[in-house]
Amino acid sequence: MARKASRTTPNFVSQAIRGVDFERAHSSVVLGEDVRGRRRGFTIVELLIVVVVIAILAAITIVAYNGITNRSKAAAASTAAEQAAKKVMTYAVTNSDNYPASLSDAGITDGSATYQYRVDNSANPKTFCLTATTQNTSAYVSSTNATPTSGVCAGHAASGQTLVTNLALDPRATGSVTSEWAGRYGTTVSFVSGASDGPSPVTSSYVRQTYFTASSGGGRGVDVHSNLDTASTPGTALPVTTGVPVSASMYIRSSVSNSSVYLECRIHDGSGNWLVARGATPSGVNYVANTWTRVNQDITPTVSGYLACTARFQANVTWPVGSTIDATGLMVSAASSLPVYSDGATSGWAWNGTPNNSTSTGPAL
Q1: In this predicted model, what pLDDT tens digit does every residue of 174-195 receive, in sequence order?
Q2: 178-344: what fold?
């Protein structure tokens, strides 16, 4: 019996061990299934990193694309300007070195590119400047620089800009067109150059009226194109057209204080006959002695003719001997409101003829 018991004991232990191993194995299988079932996702930080990386890559791509596009536009504008310039210079070769008066004379018309052109065959040497614009990108060439340059010629407008012409021939009162700056009775007129005390747009030159006899009353001022109330000739007058708005302005300074200064304009026929006489006195602005003040009047002409304007002081005061009235910065342009003062010496502008003796054109500032 004892021997029989000893035989069965190992079997019992063996079975017990196998049972434990089975439970452990079973537990391991179940645990593995649970781990695989609980797979972890991306954290917020990881997602943010991915988004930032994508944004950086997108920005790099956009910048690269824009760079390629802009270079393509610039190349197209440069090519158009260069080809047009060759036609202009070829025209000069066969026309006594005169550049074409207009681009159409050289067979150049707007198409995929639009053109702006300035020429002066009276200058020595003769000059031209041509701007080509395509897809809102511009390049220009000139008689002094045949290599296309990004941008526009002076006096031309970049895409989206508006061109403005100052009709005043001597806007800086240099004295080159004396009929534009006439004095009042009882004054002597002189033109100051090389000055440093002019208004900020025109610091170096102005016209000065000096009283050689004492005078009392309002209405003292500087006449423009009126030549002591006698109309100027058409060649030096400011042309205006019926129904086309005009804005006229100038800077004025006086050694005498006054409650108000204003600009008054009327229209003549260029032969001494007034077509539109003085109307009601415009509203003025307060004036402090020895201070530059800009005065203006916006008008819509009822007739075509030539403009004559006078900057006047309204109050009835005494103007002693030696008192002065200075003026400069005349601007007359086809505009419905007062533009920023500009002339051919302003950056981006150009004279349409002899400097300080011609109209000037440039982009509205």
Answers
A1: 988 777 787 777 888 899 999 9
A2: Jelly Rolls (2.60.120)
